[in-house]
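Page 37, continued from 36.
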């Protein structure tokens, strides 16, 4: 089945080139089917790239998915034109009276800023609280996972001595958990962040459970007892995303951390190796199947958890 996305979105061409079945809004309206309604709160500066990456992970399923793209109303994007945002994106006010099957909060390059100093923090907190009542399940990625753990459970982030960049191996801590079903004993997760959360802090919270843990005790994936999923890395990243970030920072004179376990023999003269796509796709497919499709009511008006 297809993934339904707004008419004219650049991701359509890119995904079709990969033989992914994409259906535009106008065609989807003629289908007599109740698609899953998934919102993506896109906080990344690279809006188009992030759209393609996440939609690719959501496309490997027989379920029909209806995508809504969201941005904070209280933040002015510096990297994406207002025309593009007005055409393809909505704000919280546009959906606050609706219910969703699921919502994804992306990362953002904000690890070195206190949460309360983020210009859209109050709005984001309101949306995170709203999602607990109006979405069956939610996924928080990278910075958003740190923000979600802080807002919902008071677990504060911890600055790292240097940026954690590269491909890192994590242990599957609970193969019987539906999200990790079919995942090998170890999985690779791309990381690109300056902060983390303590594994001890996560485990002390009775509502949280670690699903993927690094050999350095870095939390890779955690889940709450009410189906919020926190992924500290970027499982959606493309082959060259980390390379592009590294070259960008070198050009800026930042002297960035070299991405580990990414290039053959850690030599950037060679092309990087894609070693995380299969597990990433499986995790998001499991999310759609076990946490969205099998838990959401057919009539979303019946959701409103706790109301």
């Amino acid at each position: 089945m297809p993934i339904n996305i707004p008419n004219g979105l650049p991701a359509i061409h890119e995904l079709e080139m990969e033989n992914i079945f994409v259906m535009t809004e106008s065609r989807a309206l003629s289908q007599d089917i109740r698609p899953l309604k998934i919102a993506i709160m896109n906080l990344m500066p690279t809006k188009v790239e992030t759209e393609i990456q996440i939609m690719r992970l959501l496309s490997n399923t027989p379920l029909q998915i209806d995508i809504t793209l969201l941005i904070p109303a209280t933040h002015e994007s510096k990297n994406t034109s207002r025309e593009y945002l007005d055409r393809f994106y909505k704000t919280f006010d546009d959906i606050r009276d609706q219910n969703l099957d699921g919502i994804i909060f992306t990362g953002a390059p904000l690890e070195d800023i206190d949460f309360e100093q983020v210009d859209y923090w109050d709005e984001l907190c309101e949306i995170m609280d709203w999602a607990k009542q109006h979405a069956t399940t939610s996924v928080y990625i990278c910075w958003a996972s740190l923000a979600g753990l802080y807002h919902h459970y008071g677990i504060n982030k911890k600055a790292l001595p240097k940026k954690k960049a590269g491909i890192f191996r994590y242990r599957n801590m609970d193969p019987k958990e539906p999200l990790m079903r079919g995942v090998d004993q170890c999985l690779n997760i791309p990381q690109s962040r300056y902060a983390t959360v303590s594994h001890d802090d996560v485990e002390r919270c009775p509502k949280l459970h670690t699903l993927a843990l690094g050999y350095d005790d870095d939390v890779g994936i955690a889940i709450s007892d009410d189906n919020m999923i926190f992924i500290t890395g970027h499982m959606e990243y493309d082959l060259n995303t980390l390379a592009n970030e590294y070259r960008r920072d070198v050009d800026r004179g930042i002297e960035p951390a070299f991405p580990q376990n990414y290039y053959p023999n850690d030599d950037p003269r060679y092309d990087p190796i894609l070693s995380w796509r299969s597990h990433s796709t499986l995790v998001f497919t499991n999310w759609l199947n076990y946490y969205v499709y099998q838990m959401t009511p057919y009539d979303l008006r019946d959701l409103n958890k706790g109301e």
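Residues 3-161+171-239+278-302 form a domain with the Rossmann fold fold (CATH 3.40.50.880). Flag for discussion at group meeting. The two ends are 33 Å apart (CA to CA).
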